[in-house]
Amino acid sequence: MKRSMNSIVLLFISVVFIISSSGAGRVEAAGVGSSFLGQNAPQYTGTRLIQASLNIFGGTAYCGSTLEVYPGYTGYLTMYLQSKSSGSWSNVTSWSGSTSSLNGVSLAKSYNNLISGTTYRVHAIGTVYRNRILVEQVTATSPERTR
Length: 147
Hints:
Oligomer: single chain
Strand content: over 45%
CATH superfamily: Immunoglobulins
Radius of gyration: 16 Å
Structural class: mainly beta
Mean pLDDT: 80
Number of helices: 1
């Protein structure tokens, strides 16, 4: 029963992550002069995509982030759940992953016991390497949500 419950929770988190991706903080690498949502998109060397999303249901935060790199690059992704207090952001918790032999990594995690009335966001930082040499560091931030 516990195993099937864990599977249901993971499925739910995955669905929430996919649904929330449409409203997620997202940046795609693009060609010179192209635009994303009417603004100039950042120009990256090894990063194809970085995005961050956050949904809150009750006292639980469902956090997601994705980093995709071009072939020949390696990426490390750290996702922070942050809370806002007196106008500044502080880290509540974090999770990490790497692209290893793949060209992308996605993180989908949940965090319980959110404080009522507090504003949260997900901030994702991707660090991209080629041949063990740092190429770039990229970020994405989800829209803010208040519990």
